């Protein structure tokens, strides 16, 4: 399930529409016609891919069995079996298994001396690790050796991505109020697309951390503004479709993710494949229309009228010039900031309910993800079932929301 981070409205607008409001315009040109459907699908399509970014950490951070690389002993006895090599060069834990993080200090002895006297002094792995019983061909753990003393970086990686999502949601939420939904969506889409690709090419974990933060930054901004931009063109009676379709693309992405990782099992290749649909996004994102509601709130009536006429033509519901002329916009900007929310007890209550609900749902989802390997089933099957569940939930919520509205 895609992470959702609410953007705060730092500026509010008082819009006076004489005789005709924007809702009436939408009822005349079609509340959910071809224009709205194309815009909605085009903007929500990347959510299908963003699921890979939000959920793929379960796969690309997999930590397989391992032991220290002790090939130094092969210079003394090239024909040693793997079992003999481990017995001579790697200490055992209390449970009898070979240590994952320690090895015996290399010595310049012949093999007979090593066998007779054994090795006692231990040290950390000096020449990297040997990974065994790997479910995947390559993960960030194996490529960057994020084990033992560097294992904590795995948690830092996920935290860095989430920090990017949070910051991006807040920054682009405010940016969209000042400079437009379209521009905010375009810039965040560029960041998301470019750094999704560079993430796959990072030679070390530190560049990977920076790149992943920027992926989250762009992804958070895109999620917030794409759904706002698409739903502001949809009439109230069909508004629930906006949220439903957005989540539906994410749910389908969960299902596809299971199949993609099952077939590829290489995190770099999976990341590059994820970037391909985002490259398609870069082609058409420049043709997405601005929100007419936002244009009207900024007093840009003529631009809004042009977009309304275009939408009406695509929907095959021409709008009369007389109806458009009845729109009179008087916009005033109130720079009260977020404290406007707390001036109303009702808004304050809704604000904290939404924040708490958002936090609880996402915490529960990620808790389930982090525990996937302990369910006793194939991790790929569980991922697929998550997608099926989310698809069912999307349709259920849409029906409930439709009945409510």
From TrEMBL:
GO terms for molecular function: transmembrane transporter activity. Gene3D superfamilies: MFS general substrate transporter like domains (1.20.1250.20). Signal peptide: none annotated. It is a multi-pass membrane protein. The chain crosses the membrane at residues 38-60, 156-175, 212-229, 241-263, 269-288, 350-369, 375-401. Pfam families: Sugar_tr (PF00083). It comes from the Eukaryota. Residues 113-405 form the Major facilitator superfamily (MFS) profile domain. Its main location: membrane. GO terms for cellular component: membrane. It is found in: Membrane. InterPro entries: MFS_dom, MFS_sugar_transport-like, MFS_trans_sf, Sugar_transporter_CS. The keyword Repeat does not apply. The keyword Membrane applies. Keywords: Membrane, Transmembrane, Transmembrane helix. This is Solute carrier family 22 member 13a. It comes from Oreochromis niloticus.
């Amino acid at each position: 399930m895609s992470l959702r981070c609410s953007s705060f409205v730092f500026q509010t607008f008082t819009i006076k529409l004489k005789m005709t409001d924007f809702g009436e315009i939408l009822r005349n040109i079609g509340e959910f016609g071809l224009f709205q459907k194309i815009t909605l699908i085009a903007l929500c399509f990347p959510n299908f891919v963003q699921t890979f970014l939000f959920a793929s950490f379960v796969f690309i951070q997999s930590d397989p069995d391992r032991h220290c690389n002790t090939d130094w002993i092969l210079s003394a006895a090239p024909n040693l079996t793997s079992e003999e090599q481990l017995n001579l060069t790697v200490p055992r834990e209390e449970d009898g298994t070979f240590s994952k993080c320690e090895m015996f200090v290399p010595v310049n002895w012949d093999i007979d001396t090593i066998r007779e006297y054994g090795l006692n002094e231990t040290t950390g792995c000096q020449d990297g690790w040997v990974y065994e019983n790997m479910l995947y061909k390559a993960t960030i753990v194996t490529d960057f050796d994020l084990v033992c003393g560097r294992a904590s970086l795995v948690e830092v990686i996920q935290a860095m991505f989430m920090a990017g999502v949070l910051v991006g949601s807040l920054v682009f939420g405010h940016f969209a109020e000042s400079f437009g939904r379209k521009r905010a969506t375009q810039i965040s889409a560029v960041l998301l697309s470019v750094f999704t690709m560079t993430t796959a090419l990072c030679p070390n974990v530190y560049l990977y951390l920076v790149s992943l933060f920027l992926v989250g930054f762009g992804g958070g901004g895109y999620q917030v503004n794409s759904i706002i931009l698409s739903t502001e063109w949809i009439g109230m009676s069909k508004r629930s479709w906006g949220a439903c379709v957005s989540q539906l693309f994410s749910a389908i992405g969960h299902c596809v993710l299971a199949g993609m990782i099952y077939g590829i099992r290489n995190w770099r290749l999976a990341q590059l494949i994820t970037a391909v649909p985002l490259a398609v996004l870069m082609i058409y994102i420049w043709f997405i229309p601005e929100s007419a509601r936002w244009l009207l709130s900024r007093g840009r009536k003529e631009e809004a009228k042009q977009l309304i006429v275009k939408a009406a033509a695509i929907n095959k519901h021409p709008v009369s010039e007389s109806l458009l002329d009845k729109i009179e916009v008087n916009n005033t900007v109130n720079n009260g900031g977020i404290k406007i929310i707390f001036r109303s007890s009702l808004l304050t209550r809704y604000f904290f309910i939404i924040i708490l609900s958002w936090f609880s749902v996402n915490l529960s989802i990620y808790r389930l993800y982090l525990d996937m390997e302990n369910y006793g089933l194939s991790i790929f099957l569980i991922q697929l079932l998550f997608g099926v569940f989310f698809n069912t939930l999307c349709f259920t919520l849409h029906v409930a929301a439709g009945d409510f509205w």
